[in-house]
Design goal:
By secondary structure, the chain is an alpha/beta fold. The N terminus is likely disordered.
């Protein structure tokens, strides 16, 4: 038997953003078409079996079906329901990271939930001759929907998996560590018959270890340069190959990586260091530990973003008279613009412009960045009220609407203060894993920080929030924020 050689991973094509978008579009189109066919199947079944119209299948034609309002409206809206549900389940994200067992499992579980929802909303009030017909309709809906969606998705997933296994697609990967552990991992992965999808771009030096080209992979730099190297080489995966003597470097390395959006995997012999923070993941015979990047389940992330958009739109519409009143008050109270725009650092360290009502006199920071205090003379009389009531933050609903911020999340800071905070708390960069927010647990506790020490104290609450992120916690923080606004007790 002739064994075909393992493809050279350095020849694999990196995956472009456009290719990811088109892959997602294919899944979306497949879901819509499959859902439409499943609804049609249920309609035909009910006509033939439950409504006792045995000749229906012999005489029906598309025009006749389209004249039925129940079928017509269902065909328009039911596929959109399924599309939203599958999106909430995370089935439209990371199209190149899906595999067949994941596909089947997610489709069956999500479709079961969706079928129950449609059953109670659309089917339960139908006229029937026996309760058995309810169960038959539910079973047909579930079977048709799951079978057709799996049939639409599985070929797409199978094609992607095979392209990865053949070495046609790969994810640009850095290995942190220039040691025998890195060498053995590289050799083990390259020896696999089915390529797991790593395209080794370079090695990163850790501590004082010597760094050189290993197994044909060049040394690109040190851990201090990882951020720039990840952007320069479009890195998607990082494998940590750290010696036992270098475990002290691990927290710093992970802190530097977590704000970049890359996948982080660790060789198993250091699992005990991160016990409880990671989950095991076997990659086609090369066992690695994957550090989870998701703070919340995919469905909660989708609902959180939906809440952000809906509440922001409602707030901007309902509060329009208040916004105009505040704008007029700011304009008449002191010279200068109505709005204050300032660059802040958002998710994954991406800078953006935050929008607020101006609460200080123009030129208040002519001598450089300065934090405010309760009796800061730079604050205008109107600005003092706006800061107490938090009304100066209202324009940030626009930041939330366009996706730069969230309603709830760690407050975004300027790079100047991030550098000062990081000198005392290197783990500050953990906050960049989520969208910054208009309000946060730290903001509720401390309000506007008057010095770096208070910023560090507020950081503790933001980190605890991130470890316990949930929709329930967001609602609780929003409730406390509204209470503070109503009582005018902001700081």
């Amino acid at each position: 038997m002739v064994v075909s050689p393992t493809p050279n991973p350095t020849l694999a094509k990196p995956i472009t953003t456009l290719a990811r978008h088109w892959a997602t579009v294919r899944y979306v189109v497949g879901d819509v078409l499959a859902s439409a066919m499943a609804w049609t199947t249920l309609y035909l079944y009910r006509k033939q079996e439950l409504e006792l119209a045995p000749a229906f299948l012999e005489t029906w034609f598309p025009e006749t079906m389209w004249m039925d309002g129940n079928f017509r409206y269902g065909l328009m809206f039911v596929p959109m329901f399924w599309l939203g549900l599958y999106g909430l389940a995370g089935m439209h994200g990371n199209p190149y990271r899906r595999h067949r067992s994941m596909e089947v499992g997610q489709v069956l579980l999500t479709t079961l939930l969706g079928s129950l929802i449609l059953f109670f909303v659309l089917i339960l009030d139908d006229a029937i001759s026996s309760y058995t017909q309810y169960y038959q309709s539910l079973l047909v809906l579930f079977a048709a929907q799951s079978a057709l969606v799996i049939a639409a998705r599985l070929p797409l997933t199978t094609r992607t998996v095979k392209r990865v296994h053949r070495g046609e697609l790969a994810f640009n990967t850095l290995i942190v560590g220039c040691n025998e552990q890195a060498v053995s991992t590289i050799r083990e992965i390259r020896a696999l018959r089915r390529n797991p999808g790593f395209r080794f771009v370079g090695l990163i030096q850790v501590g004082q270890e010597g760094c050189r080209t290993l197994e044909g992979i060049p040394c690109l730099g040190s851990t201090e340069e990882m951020g720039e190297l990840i952007g320069e080489h479009a890195i998607e995966e990082v494998i940590l190959a750290v010696r036992s003597s270098e475990h002290g470097e691990l927290e710093s390395i992970i802190s530097r990586l977590e704000g970049t959006g890359v996948g982080i995997k660790i060789i198993p012999d250091i699992y005990d260091i991160l016990s409880g923070m990671v989950r095991m993941q076997s990659l086609f015979g090369a066992p690695l530990i994957a550090i989870r990047k998701e703070m919340m389940p995919a469905w909660q992330v989708a609902i959180k973003r939906g809440m952000d958009v809906v509440i922001s739109i409602i707030a901007l519409l309902i509060l329009a008279p208040l916004l105009l009143t505040i704008a007029l008050a700011v304009k008449l109270s002191s010279k200068g613009p109505v709005f204050f725009h300032q660059e802040r650092v958002g998710r994954w360290g991406t800078p953006f412009m935050i929008h607020k009502f101006r609460s200080m006199y123009v030129g208040s920071e002519r001598n450089g960045p300065q934090l405010s205090s309760d009796h800061d003379p730079r604050i205008t009389p109107v600005g003092r009220f706006l800061r107490k009531s938090r009304f100066d933050e209202l324009p940030q609903f626009f930041n939330v609407l366009i996706g730069e911020m969230s309603l709830v999340g760690p407050r975004p800071e300027r790079q100047h203060y991030i550098d000062l905070i990081s000198e005392r708390a290197s783990h500050y960069h953990h906050l960049h894993k989520v969208r910054p927010g208009i309000t946060s647990w730290g903001q509720v506790k401390y309000g506007y920080a008057e010095n770096v020490e208070q910023m560090v104290q507020r950081l503790r609450f933001d980190l605890i929030y991130m470890e316990n992120m949930s929709l329930a916690l967001d609602i609780k923080i929003l409730t406390y924020t509204v209470w503070i606004v109503l009582r005018g007790r902001g700081k």
